[in-house]
Design brief:
Nucleotidyltransferase, domain 5; globular; alpha/beta; 13 helices; Arc Repressor Mutant, subunit A
């Protein structure tokens, strides 16, 4: 196999930098692209010419605010260059979104999902129907969809779009690549939902305070307990991970978890765990696969009115979360913690336990309690995380195919 010339590799890398600047800042003039990328004016001219010829970007003119002088020439993504389908698998449904290359939402709908843990094949069939439906609604030819980005709670294979374990399907693995490949030519990727939340929060932090941002943890509370960590590397890039936080050990031989183990954090802090504790159900009772938020609302209302076991259930959940976070900070560093997910509506009941659990960490006792912020709308962050990851991958693939095709 021939190795690409260093000149071509540099050109591809610089082209991705240009597209990343447009992705981050919107439509930009020639000089603005040069300022953001630190590339020379001649290099910007050559790259934008190549990308425009490949129909990846387009030019437009913006009249000067004074009405005098030459209009500014702005570069932006060509919206019809390609399309992305985002599939968000949640505890009670599946959401399908169609997005153009500029990141604009075109269409979206949601469908309820069966909670049959043995129905992986039926679930895949329903996803195929959903994908066909969103394509049909838009009347787009299938080849215009360049990437399908899927997310779920659970364990995701590090390189392949394979759901290794999930709260609903257990160890029944789902290989989305194999399942969709006969019908779809688009690239298929899969992400852990809380990892995408961390990615979106990290991007927002970096935009808000680029010089100060170091790391951040995103804790998702709900039917499952998820954690995502975003850290800035020495090279200034974002490193994002999703450790199996919800299934870390909280108490040896403790409550039965949905994963089959005993004593996991989720077995004390997940919605089913709070329900089980509040009603004084034996801890070895098989966990419910799905608990409606309305049921937790009733328990929370009782806790706020002084009901002892209801308040105790939330406090125990908070302690389990806090103990887990204390171990995390002991292994990494003191970092801000963003709490997201439907469980944020109960944070007033969880807070005392979370802080008590965090206080067990030596680093917290030495340096103080980490900043804890509540992020109420997790779904927006999940979607932003999808766009951040998927559109960057599309940029890279278009650079490879577009520039090569224009040579």
């Amino acid at each position: 196999m021939l190795t690409k010339s260093s000149t071509e590799l540099v050109r591809q890398r610089n082209s991705v930098l240009v597209l990343a600047a447009l992705r981050r800042h919107g439509a930009l003039a020639h000089t603005e692209i040069s300022d953001f990328t630190k590339l020379s004016s001649a290099t910007i001219s050559a790259i934008t010419a190549d990308l425009e010829k490949a129909h990846v970007i387009e030019k437009s003119e913006q009249q000067a605010t004074s009405g005098r002088g030459r209009p500014r020439v702005l570069f932006r993504q060509r919206r019809d260059c390609g399309y992305l389908v985002v599939v968000v698998i949640s505890s009670d449904g599946v959401q399908y979104s169609l997005v153009d290359y500029a990141g604009k939402l075109i269409d979206r709908f949601s469908e309820e999902r069966s909670h049959d843990p043995t129905g992986a094949e039926r679930f895949i069939a329903s996803v195929k129907v959903g994908l066909a439906r969103i394509l049909s609604r838009s009347k787009l030819p299938q080849e215009k969809v360049l990437l399908i980005s899927i997310s779920s709670k659970g364990l995701v294979h590090p390189t392949d779009p394979v759901l290794v374990w999930s709260p609903i399907f257990g160890s029944n693995q789902i290989d989305f690549e194999s399942a969709l490949r006969p019908d779809w030519r688009a690239r298929v990727i899969l992400g852990n939902e809380t990892q995408l939340v961390a990615a979106a929060l990290g991007a927002n932090e970096e935009n808000a305070r680029p010089e100060d941002f170091r790391s951040l943890a995103a804790l998702s509370l709900g039917h499952s307990i998820g954690l995502g960590i975003v850290r800035r590397t020495g090279q200034g890039e974002r490193e994002i991970s999703a450790p199996n936080f919800g299934h870390m050990l909280h108490m040896a031989n403790g409550g039965l978890c949905r994963c089959g183990s005993k004593g996991c954090i989720e077995a004390y802090a997940g919605f089913y765990a709070i329900l089980r504790m509040a009603f004084e159900v034996p801890l070895d009772t098989i966990p419910a696969k799905f608990v409606p938020v309305a049921e937790l609302d009733k328990i929370a209302a009782q806790a706020r009115q002084g009901h002892r076991m209801s308040a105790f259930a939330f406090r125990q959940a908070g302690i389990a979360l806090g103990n887990g976070l204390s171990r995390l900070l002991s292994l990494t560093e003191l970092m801000p913690i963003a709490i997201a997910g439907p469980g944020t509506r109960y944070y007033d009941l969880l807070r005392q336990g979370v802080e008590e659990g965090l206080g067990q960490a030596h680093v917290v006792r030495m340096e103080g309690m980490p900043e804890i912020r509540v992020v109420p709308d997790e779904s927006i962050l999940v979607f932003e995380g999808h766009l951040d990851r998927a559109l960057s991958l599309i940029d890279q693939e278009l650079v490879l195919s577009g520039i090569q095709g224009s040579d």
